[in-house]
Amino acid sequence: MPLPVPDRLSDLPYAHLLTPHSGPLRSDERYDTVHFDGGEYTDQRAGGATFLECAFTGVALSGVKLRQARFTEVWAQAGRWVGCDLSESEWQDSTVTGGVLAGVSAHGSALRRTVFRGCKLEAVNLRAAVLRDVVFEDCLLRDVDFGDARLTDVSFPGTTLEEVRLRGARLSKADLRGAVRLGLPDGHQGLKGAVISSTQLLELAPQFAHALGITVKD
Fold first, then answer.
1. I need a surface site. Which of 20, 52, 172, 182 has the fewest CB within 10 A?
2. pLDDT at 1 (0 to 100)
3. Distance (Å, rounded) from C-alpha 36 to C-alpha 58?
4. DSSP state of 78
5. Is the confidence at residue 163, as pLDDT, over 70?
6. Rounded CA separation 143/184 (Å)
């Protein structure tokens, strides 16, 4: 697309307004220009919380409940999100860079103008999510489920896809040409509306042939 991504905390337009956070996360709390730096949050409940112009640096979240939370103009760097519940959360104009998301449930979430750069997403549930203007740049997506999701203007430059499921997904101008590898166990399922390269087409040809009942012999 590409979307502008701040490389450093000081690059954020609201960096001078950030105040350090202390204490636990709380449900339905509004966090405005708050800096979460290097903390560890385990099994806390922060459902419905709003994060506006906040920064997360080196933060570790484990088993945190963030259902229906809202992240607007949030910048997260080098964090770990493990076993978190982000179902029905909303992300807009946000960046996640150099982080790990593992065993995360983001079912039914909505992401708009959001960038994941240099991240590892493993066993992430994005079923029925809505993604618009989202970039996965230089990432590893392993065992990520986009089943029944809607992907519009989503791209994957430099990203490796392993065991990524698209069955039932609805794609519109989803650009897969920059992906390093397309590991799609569902084969052609869900690829309607995607943009792929001629090389990728050749790689996927055996799966297309199998789906059509074609036997290829030399």
1. 20
2. 46
3. 8
4. S
5. yes
6. 10
User: What pairs with residue 34 in β-bridges?
Assistant: 19
User: 96 forms bridges with which residues in the sheet?
Assistant: 76, 116
Which amino acid appears at position 71 of this protein? F
Q: Which residues contact 199 (CB under 8 A, 6 or more apart)?
A: none
Length of the chain: 218
Residue recorded with tokens 């792929």: 196
Distances (CA, A) of 114 to 44, 95, 135: 25, 6, 7
Tokens matching residue 116: 């994941």
Residue 52, judged by CB atoms within 10 A of its CB (0-12, 13-18, 19+), counts as: middle
Q: How far apart are CA 65 and CA 200, in angstroms?
A: 38
Mean pLDDT in the chain? 94
Contact 207, 182 (CB under 8 A): no
DSSP secondary-structure letter at 192? T
Cα–Cα distance for residue pair 23/83, rounded to 1 Å = 21
Rounded to whole angstroms, what are the CA distances from 123 to 52, 93, 109, 187? 27, 24, 16, 19
Q: Does the pLDDT of residue 196 top 60, yes or no?
A: yes
- Across-strand partners of 50? 30, 70
What is the SS3 string spanning 28-48? CCEEECEEEECCEEECCECCC
22-34 mean pLDDT: 97
In the chain, what is the straight-line distance between the N-terminal and C-terminal CA atoms, in Å? 41
The pTM of this model reads: 0.94
